[in-house]
Specification:
Blueprint (H helix, E strand, L loop, with lengths): L11 E5 L2 E5 L1 H5 L5 H9 L6 E6 L4 H9 L2 E9 L2 E8 L15
Parallel strand pairs: 2-3
Antiparallel strand pairs: 1-2, 3-5, 4-5
Amino acid sequence: MIAFHEDHPALRFWEQDGAYHLDVREYLRQGGRPYSLLLGCVRQMAPGDSFVVHSLFDPQPLRRQFARMGLLQELTQLEPEHWCLTVRLDAARPEPMVPEPAGP
C-alpha cells in the first residue's frame, strides 16, 4: 500500500482499479521537481503494487533510475502533454533497490 501525505494543490494522488496514481503535470508546470516524492512512493511499494506517474513528457531519466531499481515499467502517451509511466515491483524482488538519500 502506498500512502501519500504531500499537501500541494498542484499534486493529485488517488487509487483506481488496484493502482496508485500520482499526477505531477501541474506541479511540473509550476517548476516543481517531483523526484523525491516519486521515490517516496516507490519505497512503499509491495509486490503486486502498481504505481502510475502522470507526467507532461516521457520521463527518460526517471525510467532509467527505475530500471536500475529493478522495477518493471510500461510507458503510454495519452495526449501530447500526458504521459503515463506505470511501474510494478518484480515479484522475484522483495523490495525496490532505492538509493539512499544523499548526505549533507
